[in-house]
# Entry
Amino acid sequence: MLAAGTATVLLDPVFADTVNVDMQYYVFLTPRGDCEGLYLASQSPKGFEVRELRGGKSDVPFDYRIVARRKGYESRRLEDATDLDNIAVAGQPVAP
# Structure
């Protein structure tokens, strides 16, 4: 919750063990009350700081979503699925 326009969020240690927090991760913020808006003031491997825009001092709850690379799979990408007509479903080949 934002208190007087600021909040510090510490990453849950279990979550931090499953992602590579030493690489850039993304934080998406959604205020759940009337305020000037929110921004990510800083972030580190331990967590991040959220502040209200324009020096606001609101006390509002907010939601956040973190997108980070999975530890040990940082360079892996999902397979290209642009040719949907030729993709097998549940291990079964697509009928001609």
